[in-house]
Amino acid sequence: MGVLLQAFYQMGDKGVPAEVNGSVWWDHLAKQAHSFQQVGFTALWLPPVSKGASGTSSIGYDVFDDYDLGSRNQKGTIPTRYGTREQLARCVAVMRANGLDVYLDLVENQRSGGSGPGGFIFRYLDADGNPGGGRFPKNPENFHPNVPEDPGTVPGQDFSFGADLAPINGKPPGYVFNGLIDGADWMTRALGVQGYRVDDAKGVSTRFMLPMLNSKAMKGKFAVGEFFDGNLGLIQNWLFDGMQGRAAAFDFPTRFMLQRMCNRSGPFSMAALDHAGLAGSNPFNAVTFVENHDTDSKPFEAIVRNKALGYTYILTSEGYPCVFYKDYSDDPGCYGGGKVGKTRTLKQIIENLIFIHEKIANGATQQRFRDFDIVAYERVGGDHLLVALNNDEQNSRTITVDTGFGANTSLHDYSGHAPDVRTDNNARATITVPANHNGLGFVCYSRTGLRGEFFPAVH
């Protein structure tokens, strides 16, 4: 399914640095496009690209103007925090030239920076800079609670971070509904993107979001919803009842398991990872992740230990894995350049796991061993991949498991943590999984001699 890179992060309540090595964010990403492709990433998720109410301080979720991507002098600035519209368009074009898909972050639940009582009046500059002439102006009856809450949201879970848009119940009927669709269509065509991350899926009516994703330029493009909840049943209800299978969802149930596993914040049985979360039940609708901008920026939600073990799980399991830029990058202030063990950085470990994901991990998952400290599973497609994770920080473990490799097959550990082994006459393998020092308690065995490079996709 590829590997997605979340191409931004937060520093507390602030966004990425205004400049990195003298470049604004859009240019900084563009300079890395070739290297992203070379290590095996297939898509990037960009932060919200529209002008925010807090100007150059905006992370992007306080969207002000649907049609200002960094080209109009509003909220004290022409560029957004990430750069100008021209720099954004160039960034997307460079990613596409390197075979990478680009996903936009759609913020359809709220708008910020309005005027009048409650901040419900929005007027914009037009393309020539004339006040009040911009597209999609908004008035109080376009928002909750000035009209009733929309059907198709999650009751009691609509925590809007601004004036709460009403695409279903807003007045006049159809104005907000069509205005949001037209804005997303324009942005999609203006930038030439391939998909979307839907912000705050609980707060956006599925009676709007489903037809929106089936409209105009959005039709058929990839979409993943941020349904922030550890309840698998609620996520599945959103996916299959509300969205009729049109979108994927972030796998928060699995992520919360990985948080407990990595942080060792209490007793955790590795057996719980057997077909865990959304990826375990609906892998083609699951986007798995270890960290994102929200969880990393909140100390009580962040994973602070053994992150490599979490990335091993998502990059060898089913689902569509998403790597967090701050974990991958060796930019100042990011974690990727930090040593994990004696020789490798987290960035290097993630790159090796991306190779394993893209070149070896295929097919359904067969459980091979599980107890409180160890879980082992085999991906049974292609060349097969046998993975074992050990959460015991003090002791290595030796286990013997059935495999699908066949009898007397030479196996290599592509993580580099253990020596080659050979299956016996019954196709069983005896493997030793190292102790989980700094998250390195894992092995990834497959047939010896596997190689492969990454080449840009042809568009």
Written description of the protein model:
The protein has 459 residues and is α/β, with parallel strands linked by helices. 24% of the residues lie in helices and 20% in strands. The protein has twelve helices and 23 strands. The chain has helices at residues 25-31, 33-39, 85-97, 175-191, 206-213, 232-242, 252-263, 277-281, 293-296, 307-316, 325-328, 346-359; strands spanning 4-6, 43-45, 51-52, 63-65, 101-106, 110-111, 143-144, 163-165, 195-198, 222-225, 248-250, 286-289, 320-324, 339-340, 344-345, 365-370, 374-379, 385-390, 397-402, 410-413, 421-422, 428-433, 442-447. Strands 1-2-5-9-10-11-12-13 form an eight-stranded parallel barrel. Strands 16-17-18-23-20-21 form a six-stranded antiparallel beta sheet, covered by helices on one side. β9 (195-198), α5 (206-213) and β10 (222-225) form a beta-alpha-beta unit. α1 (25-31) runs parallel beside α3 (85-97) and α10 (307-316) packs parallel to α12.
